[in-house]
Amino acid sequence: MTTVMKVENLRKEFGGLVAVDNISFEVNEGEFIGLIGPNGCGKSTTFNCISGLLNQTSGKIEVFGTDVSKMRPDEIQSLGVTRTFQHTRLWREMSVIENLLVPPRDQFKPSLTVSEFRKALSYGICGFLALLTALLAQSMLVEYLAYLTTITAFGMVAWWSDSQKHVWNSLIQGRNNPPEIERLSKVYSTLDQLEVPHMAPNLANELSGGQSKLVDIGRSMMGDPRLLLLDEPVAGVAGPLAMKIFANLRKLVDETGVSVLIIEHNMDFILRQGVDRIVVMNEGELLMVGTPDEVRSNRAVIEAYLGSGGDTREVSE
């Protein structure tokens, strides 16, 4: 089985506080994996390190064979990783369709990189300084200032036009974009997959919390991710809809082969929702990795959730 993500001895410290303490686990292709643990055990910090929002103190994270330990979030996303957050971030005054049509990763690629922008800027600055020096030497600064500015600007535009015209083409002409009809079709296909096509024309501010979670998941799917990181997608969602969200995710994994790593606080809930394996954390440490049955019967897990006097029947029944 192909490994799509590998976390090795991940450690994250905030000053003297150890939030994540040397944990290791893997996610394989086409797996639906839960990441669980009591509040404050380091689940979201682990997600933030994986997605590049935080730099780990030590350890290594590989995604699709690439070491992403020092990469920016956008660079990690470009590999095929999409991450959602516990609190949905929809455009409230836009419809569900419009929210899903927001450009996914790499839609406008190729684009201008930071290094290319700096190069263009340096060309202009060097040209400007060279002309300024010449004019100062001739004591004609005031007379030729307008001329100098025009020539410098022309040089920058000429360089830009020659080396970056593909950006303009991709943005304006849509050379590298799929046809709009194809994207719209994908929106409806995604909503069908989530069993909410009736929500397409609704404004985001008309949706319930659970419906907003579904739209957020749908939007993440529009970028054709290979690995989905979902941070408590059913937090605050009513039981029946929460079960529907998990059922749709299970269906997504089975039908597309995408890998899903999902944070969930409610152990009793996730044990019943068809995940393949569960990663259990407690106080920043890795407690165990196993199947739902193995987790359900593990005494250390029960004690972490219920205390040393906990009855295993409370999570197994």
Furnish the topology, listing elements before pairings.
Blueprint: E1 3-14, E2 17-28, E3 32-36, H1 43-50, E4 58-63, E5 66-67, H2 73-77, E6 81-83, H3 96-101, H4 114-137, H5 141-173, H6 180-193, H7 209-221, E7 227-231, H8 239-256, E8 259-264, H9 267-270, E9 277-282, E10 285-290, H10 292-296, H11 299-306, H12 313-316
Parallel strand pairs: 3-8, 3-9, 6-7, 7-8
Antiparallel strand pairs: 1-2, 1-4, 4-5, 9-10
Helix pairs in contact: 4-5
Q: What is the level-2 CATH architecture name of the largest domain?
A: 3-Layer(aba) Sandwich
Spans of at least 5 consecutive residues whose pLDDT stays below 50 are: 107-112, 162-175, 312-317
- H and E order: EEEHEEHEHHHHHEHEHEEHHH
- Strand arrangement within the widest β-sheet reads 6-7-8-3-9-10
Number of helices: 12
Top CATH class of the largest domain:
Alpha Beta
Taking the sheet with the most strands, its summary is: 6 strands, mixed
Task: Walk me through the structure.
The chain has twelve helices and ten strands. It is an alpha/beta fold and 317 residues long. It has two domains: 3-107 and 177-316, P-loop containing nucleotide triphosphate hydrolases (Rossmann fold); 114-173, no CATH class. The strands form two sheets. The chain has a six-stranded mixed beta sheet, sandwiched between helices. Strands 2-1-4-5 form a four-stranded antiparallel beta sheet, covered by helices on one side. Strand 9 and strand 10 form a beta hairpin. Helix 4 (114-137) packs antiparallel against helix 5 (141-173). The two termini are 32 Å apart.
